Each structure stands twice: as structure tokens, then as C-alpha cells.
């Protein structure tokens, strides 16, 4: 058995970690904000960067394990210091730092491949150390990837993406087989794969210069393989997160192409996964998939076609599936808020498609009464807003849409990423998959936030609709009559007078105006 460059024994390594000041400091930094504040006041960022760059100038496979451990601890400290503040990221960013991260990923990828090809050819302690070092470097890279400036400069032309793709492409079963007698190595490798997916979810969005390299490098096939084969909940959750960002803001034909390896069957199956977080993320993916896509809306509506004979039965089966999920997840439990919001926005997207589907929704009385219940009793303004958009779309008139070039409301893309940018044209939200716990980590998740040009476009569309005049179609007449009979006019009117949220209040007024106008026989439509 080859044991390259083993400098300390197993017992010595454990002792050195236990009493290593840098290891202790990294744990304190990750768990206590005041420690980070203290380190920043001491101006230690530059010193830590010098330590990393100095170590990285030596071939990593020639370093003692304790040196590699020190480097990993410094990476963790820097990842904690750069997790929030852009100024701290800027302070450590350099080609040398990115090169050091790249060398670390290359070291571990090479050693892991060698171990998998020939189990036992690499000492377990060495592989554990290089794994710890790679995971620490990835945690730092995860923090840095939140910066648009980083994506457009230091990460734009590196081999980092290659190593990230290689890490997630290794089949999970290969790891299970190789580490059957070493559960620590197995868990560490699965954790590294989870952290890597968290990085990719940040750098694969449409504005990232790294997106093309990721897609061309086989990312979709790797994510599809993980979605179908992994038994690790965190890897499954982060894979869904990545796929949601792959299809975010994409054209319909591209979405359909990316859906090929994944399959709609698998996404719907995951909506019933034992993990609540996986269910929630699966509905988020379907929410992005169905946005502005008649193709995918009708695929969803026809999903249960094996058991039903008529189009009405097939389509109502999908609406009843969504209704069942809403009924199973109480609106009074805050953990269900994101899932309920995504489900209602799928209904919004269906209602934005065509007159026949708007009629289909209104004919589902149980669904409409549940939406009214959400308006009355749910405390989440984001869920209420989604419900109001359903009503606005149901009272939409197609002939005005065709004449004005507008269409029913289909806004509802979801992108919860850590990417930050100071420009006005970018949405700045912070939510990432948690890699240290059994559940996802939704930090400051923002729902349908409109920023910059998106808000102006949305308001302009409403004004354009307000200026259109035409006769009321029989379809919308019938829908308005049914909605009024169910009590929606009274509920929406009462809410419009009582809510404080300006965005919600604005949409409530539009919905009330639609219903009132139809009841008066007016020709004005929003």
C-alpha cells in the first residue's frame, strides 16, 4: 500500500487537531458573531491570506498533514468572515487566493479518484485531511460566490468549475462501496458533495458568466443522476436547488430540454418525498417550470392521464393534487409558508394560460374556497398576494389581452440565491441550502420581490390594462358571478381596507375593481 508523504501518525493527528489554536478559532468563528467582529477589529484578514498564499506556494502533496489542517482552519475562518459583508470578500479576493482554492480542489479530486480506482492506495488519514481541506475551501468559495463581482472577475477564467463538476459527477454508490468500512470518510465525502452543490446553485444563474461552462460541462446530466439515485436528503435538496436555478428565467424550449434527463415524473414523485424540505423545493421547481409556459402548464394538468378518461377529469386531478397538498400543510404553521406560496403560484401560472383553464379553476369549488380561506385566515402576506393574483387572472379578459399585447399575470419565478450585487438591476436575496444540518437553510427568503426594471415593467403592465376598454366576455362574466357568489368580493374588499402591505393593497384594489366592474357591466379591465 502506498502512503505518500505521511508525516504524522493517526493518533498524533487527532491530538494536533484537538489542541490546534487555528482549529479552535475556526470553530469559534463559525459559531459566534462576536468572534468575527473581534477578528475584524484586529485586522487579521490580510494575515490569514498571507498564511494561505505562503502554504499554497509549496506543492500540497509535500506538506505535513498538520500544515494542511492549518490551511483548512484558515479557510473556515475566512469563510465565516466573508459570509455576509461584501467589503470582507473584496479584502481577501485575489488571483492567488482563487489559485490556492483551485490547488486544494485539484489535490483532493486527484487523491479521491486514485482511492476509488484502487481502494487503500491512499492512506485514510491523508484522504480525510484532504477532504477536510477541500470542504473548508469550498465553504470559502461558497461565501465568495455570493458576490457578482467575484463571478465576473476572479472566477471567470479558472479551472475551479472543472473540479466542482468532477466532485458531483462521482456516483454516490461508488463512494458507498469504497468506504464501506470507513463511515467517517463516506460522510465527509457526501458533505463535500453537498457543499459543492451549494456553490453551483449560486454560480449557475442566468447572469453568471460561469453558467455556460457548467451547462456545457454536463451539469444537467449530473444533477439528473443525483435526483434519481441519491439517498442523501441534503444532496437531494441541493440538487433540486441547482435545477431550480438552471431553469430560472430560461426560455421554454431550453427548460424542456433540461427536463429531459430529469423527467416530470421524478419531480412530481419528489412532491411526496418523506422530507418536508424536499417536497417544498420540488414545488418550487414546478413553480419555475410552469412560469410563462403553456407547454409545461398543460403537461402538469395532463400528468394523471393514466387513471382518468376525460380531459376534465385529468385536469381536475392535478388541481385536486395541489389542493390536497395545501390541505395537508396547515397555513398556521410557519414552516409551510414557502410550500403553500409555491403551490398557489402554480395555480397563478395555470390561470394565466387560457380562458378554458381559467374556467377549469373556477369550476373547482373546493380549490377556490380554500384560496378564500387563505385570504381570510393566513397571516403570510406573500401567500395572500399569490391568492390575489389568482383572482386577478380569473377576471382577465382575453380580447383585451390580445389587443394590448399584454397577458394575464405570470410573474412568479423563484430564485433564492446568495448572490449579491450593488447595482439596482439585480435582486439581492440570501438563501442557501444548509450543508451542516438535516434541513434546508432559508435565510431571509424573499418571495415575489420585484426589483428595478421588473417593478417598473409590472406597474406599466397594470396601467396598460387599465387603459384598455372592451366588452366583457361571457367566460369572465360567468367566472365573476361564481367568485362573487363564493364571497370573494366581500373578502377582497375588506382586506384592501385593512392590510398595511402596500404591494398587497395595490393588487387587492385591482382585484376588487375587476369584480366590481364586471358586476356593474362596465367594460374596464385590468
Automatic annotation (TrEMBL):
Tagged with keyword Nucleus: yes
SUPFAM superfamilies: ARM repeat
Subcellular location, principal: cytoplasm
GO cellular component: cytoplasm; GID complex; nucleus
Key words, A-Z: Cytoplasm, Nucleus, Repeat
Alphabetical GO biological process terms: proteasome-mediated ubiquitin-dependent protein catabolic process
Compartment(s): Cytoplasm; Nucleus
Repressor keyword on record: no
InterPro entries, per the entry: ARM-like, ARM-type_fold, ARMC8/Vid28
Name of the protein in its database record: Vacuolar import and degradation protein 28
Taxonomic source organism: Cyberlindnera fabianii
Organism lineage: Eukaryota, Fungi, Dikarya, Ascomycota, Saccharomycotina
Amino acid at each position: 500500500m502506498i502512503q505518500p508523504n505521511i508525516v504524522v501518525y493517526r493518533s498524533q493527528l487527532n491530538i494536533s487537531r484537538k489542541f490546534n489554536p487555528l482549529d479552535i478559532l475556526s470553530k469559534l468563528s463559525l459559531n459566534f458573531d462576536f468572534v468575527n467582529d473581534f477578528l475584524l477589529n484586529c485586522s487579521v484578514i490580510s494575515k490569514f491570506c498571507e498564511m494561505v498564499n505562503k502554504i499554497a506556494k509549496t506543492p500540497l502533496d509535500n506538506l505535513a498533514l498538520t500544515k494542511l489542517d492549518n490551511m483548512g482552519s484558515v479557510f473556515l475562518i475566512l469563510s465565516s468572515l466573508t459570509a455576509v459583508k461584501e467589503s470582507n470578500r473584496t479584502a481577501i479576493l485575489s488571483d492567488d487566493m482563487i489559485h490556492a482554492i483551485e490547488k486544494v480542489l485539484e489535490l483532493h479530486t486527484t487523491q479521491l479518484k486514485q482511492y476509488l480506482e484502487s481502494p487503500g492506495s491512499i492512506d485514510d488519514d491523508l484522504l480525510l485531511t484532504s477532504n477536510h481541506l477541500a470542504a473548508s475551501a469550498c465553504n470559502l468559495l461558497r461565501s465568495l460566490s455570493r458576490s457578482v463581482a467575484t463571478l465576473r472577475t476572479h472566477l471567470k477564467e479558472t479551472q475551479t468549475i472543472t473540479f466542482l463538476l468532477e466532485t458531483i459527477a462521482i456516483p454516490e454508490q461508488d463512494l458507498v462501496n469504497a468506504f464501506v468500512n470507513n463511515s467517517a470518510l463516506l460522510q465527509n465525502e457526501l458533505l463535500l458533495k453537498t457543499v459543492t452543490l451549494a456553490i453551483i446553485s449560486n454560480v449557475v444563474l442566468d447572469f453568471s458568466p460561469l453558467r455556460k461552462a457548467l451547462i456545457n460541462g454536463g451539469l444537467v446530466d449530473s444533477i439528473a443522476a443525483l435526483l434519481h439515485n441519491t439517498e442523501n436528503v441534503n444532496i437531494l435538496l441541493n440538487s433540486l436547488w441547482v435545477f431550480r436555478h438552471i431553469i430560472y428565467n430560461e426560455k421554454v424550449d431550453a427548460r424542456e430540454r433540461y427536463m429531459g434527463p430529469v423527467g416530470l415524473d421524478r419531480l412530481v414523485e419528489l412532491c411526496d418525498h418523506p422530507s418536508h424540505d424536499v417536497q417544498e423545493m420540488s414545488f418550487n421547481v414546478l413553480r419555475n417550470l410552469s412560469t410563462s409556459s403553456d407547454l409545461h402548464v398543460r403537461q402538469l394538468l395532463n400528468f394523471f392521464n393514466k387513471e382518468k378518461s376525460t380531459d376534465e377529469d385529468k385536469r381536475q386531478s392535478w388541481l385536486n393534487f395541489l389542493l390536497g397538498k395545501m390541505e395537508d400543510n396547515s397555513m398556521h404553521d410557519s414552516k409551510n409558508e414557502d410550500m403553500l406560496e409555491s403551490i398557489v403560484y402554480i395555480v397563478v401560472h395555470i390561470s394565466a394560460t387560457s380562458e378554458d383553464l381559467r374556467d377549469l379553476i373556477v369550476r373547482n369549488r373546493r380549490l377556490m374556497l380554500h384560496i378564500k380561506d387563505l385570504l381570510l385566515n393566513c397571516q403570510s402576506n406573500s401567500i395572500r398576494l399569490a391568492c390575489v393574483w389568482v383572482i386577478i387572472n380569473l377576471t382577465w379578459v382575453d380580447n383585451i389581452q390580445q389587443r394590448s399585447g399584454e397577458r394575464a399575470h405570470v410573474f412568479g419565478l423563484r430564485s433564492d440565491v446568495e448572490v449579491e450585487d450593488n447595482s439596482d438591476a439585480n435582486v439581492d436575496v440570501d438563501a442557501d441550502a444548509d450543508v451542516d444540518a438535516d434541513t434546508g437553510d432559508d435565510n431571509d427568503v424573499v418571495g415575489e420581490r420585484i426589483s428595478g426594471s421588473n417593478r417598473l415593467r409590472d406597474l406599466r403592465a397594470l396601467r396598460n390594462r387599465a387603459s384598455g376598454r372592451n366588452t366583457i366576455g361571457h367566460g369572465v362574466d360567468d367566472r365573476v358571478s361564481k367568485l362573487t357568489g363564493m364571497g370573494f368580493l366581500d373578502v377582497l374588499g375588506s382586506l384592501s381596507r385593512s392590510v398595511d402591505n402596500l404591494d398587497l393593497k395595490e393588487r387587492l384594489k385591482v382585484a376588487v375593481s375587476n369584480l366590481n366592474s364586471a358586476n356593474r357591466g362596465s367594460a374596464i379591465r385590468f
